[in-house]
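Q: Give me the 3D complex with 2'-O-acetyl adenosine-5-diphosphoribose.
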Amino acid sequence: MTHKTNHKLHIGSNDRVFVLTGAGISAESGLATFRGSDGLWEGERVEDVASPRGWKRDPERVWRFYSLRRKAAAAAQPNPAHLALASAERRLGDRLFICTQNVDDLHERAGSRNVVHMHGELFQSCCDSCTLEPFADTRLYEIRADHLRCECGGRIRPNIVWFGEVPFYMELILEELGRCTVMLVVGTSGVVQPAASFVHWVNQRQQDSGSSVRTYYIGPEHPANASAFTHVYEGSAGELLPRLLGDQKQDKG
Ligand code: OAD
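A: Here is the predicted complex, encoded as structure tokens.
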């Protein structure tokens, strides 16, 4: 069901809100989404810059790509959609959980705390060979990637989940999916797994246990999995989220 709305979502004192965000929530901050009409990510093919194979073939190209992403994200500011979620978290506390597919840090810079980055974080690096703990890293690698070596001899790579790799925090995400009563999905095309299936998992849970979950999608166009949602709100996240999440006295509790 598609809605154009001015109303606020009702979030009661027993509700738990699971938020899934994608590239669309950062679009109004000036960060490019992934699936533009030309099928390229900022002029690069996905398999060249976001796969273990692409990394093996040309680490410098991969670092060049993620250095540009670091530069763009560092210059960007959180927009009203990020701010509305942070403000809702201040009211709801840990009853609001954000799972983002985004690697930028705009949720945190808006003030959100209860956030996990299932596809990794742009401002972290790790080793491609050993279990070195991922570390904060804002550097721009315009030098030869070959120089970026871990003590073990492995290469330092961005701490990003590439195609074919396992997303982070899945245990916690499943736990939150298993107990939410409201699901809010914002700005994601609904094609990349497993995130695209979260709404189906919640629907299955409803069927199995008789629990009731309201599922909302927010974005300017219908995602590939639109039919799985109880409500689709068409519009930009920066415009709709502040309205849908506007201060609600009943959130407290
Ligand atoms: P996509 O680029 O596939 O989709 C972005 C979505 O945002 C589209 O559905 C747009 O309609 C929507 N959108 C655009 N502007 C918007 C706005 N102002 N407000 C709300 N929505 C808007 O990005 P994702 O679905 O996030 O993974 O992509 C998922 C994953 O694919 C990414 O996390 C990335 C990529 O592989 C990794 O890097 C591992």
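A quick observation: The longest strand covers residues 120-127.
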